[in-house]
Amino acid sequence: MILLLDGQGVLYEQIARSIKAHILDGSFRTGMKLPSSRVLATILKVSRRSVVDAYDILATEGLVQPIAGVGTVVASPVNDNRPSAAGDTSVAMLSRFAQRASALPALSLVGTTQGLRYSFQYGAPLVNTRVYLSWARKLATAAKRTAPDYGAVTGHPALRAAVADYLTRRRGVHCSADDVLIVSGTQQAIALAARVLLNEGDAVIVEDPYYELAVHALIAHGADVTHVRTDQDGLCVAEIPNCSARMALVTPAHQFPSGVEMSMQRRLELLSWARENKAWILEDNYDSEFHGGRELYRSLYSMDMNDSVIYIGSFSKSLFPSLRLGYMICPKRIRTDLAKAKLLDDLGSPVSEQAALATFMQSGLYEKQLRASIQEVMVRRKVLVHELQRTFKDAVRIGPHDSGMHLVLWFPALKPTELDALIREAANRQVAVQSIAFSYKTSPPYPGLLLGYASMTAAEIRTAVRRLAQCL
Predict the structure, then answer these.
(1) Per-residue pLDDT tens for 332-341?
(2) 82 confidence band (pLDDT: 50, 70, 90)
(3) Residue 461 vs residues 371, 453, 456: alpha-carbon distances, Å
(4) CA 85 → CA 80, 92, 256, distances in Å?
(5) Residue 111 falls in which region: left (phi positive, over 0), alpha (psi -120 to 50) or beta
(6) Burial class (CB within 10 angstroms; exposed 0-12, middle 13-18, buried 19+) of 457
(7) 240 neighbors 269 (Cβ within 8 angstroms)
């Protein structure tokens, strides 16, 4: 068996990706027996643990099946895309979208930190139990008061007005309720924008490093994704190739995952690029509420004079992830088109949840709890940075950390394989950490870890850092 590892991230996920690629392209047929973990480890010159973990990932995805007395066999007839003697054409019946989606690699940020006591999982926000209970009461009240009919596809009027008021007062995004389209989160916003603005093969500019799920949505749609480097000032606009790109997806307030804020000069350059190329900008503000108290640069949307910026945000970080509600602030010339795409997708977001959220915002409770959450996140951020500096000293470099809910911890003296060993040893000590390499198209200069800290208490952060330091 010949497996080529891509060198991106931990070994077990490299092995899993390589085997998965062979299964999906038909090289490994259904029922084929894979080498034992011990034999494959010897062939690849890696630890047996890496192979066992890779097989576990594939089994979870249903691509292989461990059979007692036989071993691990390929078990995915759906993805076996070479025609059989009977001329099976099941894969050919799939749409091009489905085929592109099936070929996407497994998400590196999902399911890798489950079951461990201390988790630096990215995306796990601070959830206030009292706020959640208050929300439950408001939801119950809203359910009694809202009609059982379909709601407005653009969103509950009271919620659209509350979002516009909040963004205008608190974020400097001057908009009206008519500009607001309520969606089920950032991911749907990106998908709707792609449907309205992109054809298959259209070029889209994304930052490097990048957010996996967003890029996957664009690739599945059929976009030709071009990654452009970021530095301490954000997206390197001058390095955007001349590829007639139709759109750029950026996180200017808090670049994911590096944490840098796009400078004012780069913002002006990006707006100029969009104007000259008749392109659109998707401005993703996924967690910019959680800044360190300093004043942020103006949003791209508020600076745009060409009606070409779509501002998107959600309540997943400021409230809780299970509340699948977000918003798009739409350029006037495509309001109707985005609303039609939303109509065809789901007929509109749940009305009771929208009504409850509108009441929550209008009563002032949303901003009250947000202020409390920001203060607590800042405390946890300060504790993490202090503990990292005190414990690791000059062995690490800490990325920008004055906003958001995560930071990057760089290890200039480590090799990628050594970082993999550190991650495995951390898991043995009940600390879950993730490599930053998965978010890079071009390998980063040093190995690094993506540390989300909002869901851990200060005491847990101190213990987790101490255990992580012991791994070195």
Answers:
(1) 999 999 999 9
(2) very low
(3) 22, 7, 6
(4) 13, 15, 48
(5) left
(6) middle
(7) no
Residues 6+ apart with CB under 8 A from 124: 452, 454, 455
Task: Specify the DSSP class assigned to residue 441.
Answer: S
- The predicted structure's pLDDT at residue 8: 77
**Measured distance CA(318)–CA(374) in Å, rounded:** 9
2-35 as b/e: b if 16+ CB within 10 A: ebeeeebbbbbbbbbbbbbbbbbeeebebebebb
pLDDT in tens, 112-151: 556 788 999 887 777 777 777 778 888 888 888 888 888 8
Q: What is the C-alpha R_g of the chain? A: 23
CA neighbor of 329 nearest in space, from 287, 301, 359: 301
Find the angle CA(205)-CA(208)-CA(213) to the nearest 5 degrees.
Answer: 80
Do 387 and 396 meet the contact criterion of CB atoms below 8 Å apart? no
User: pTM score, two decimals?
Assistant: 0.78
CB contact at 8 A, 33 and 21 = no
Contacts of 254 (CB under 8 A, 6+ apart): 261, 285, 286, 287, 288, 291, 403, 404
With CA atoms as reference, report the closest residue to 274 among 231, 303, 315, 312: 303
How long, in residues, is the chain?
472
Contacting residues for 282 by C-beta, under 8 A, at least 6 apart? 189, 190, 193, 247, 248, 249, 250, 310, 312
Yes or no: say if 192 and 341 are a contact pair by the CB < 8 Å rule.
Answer: yes
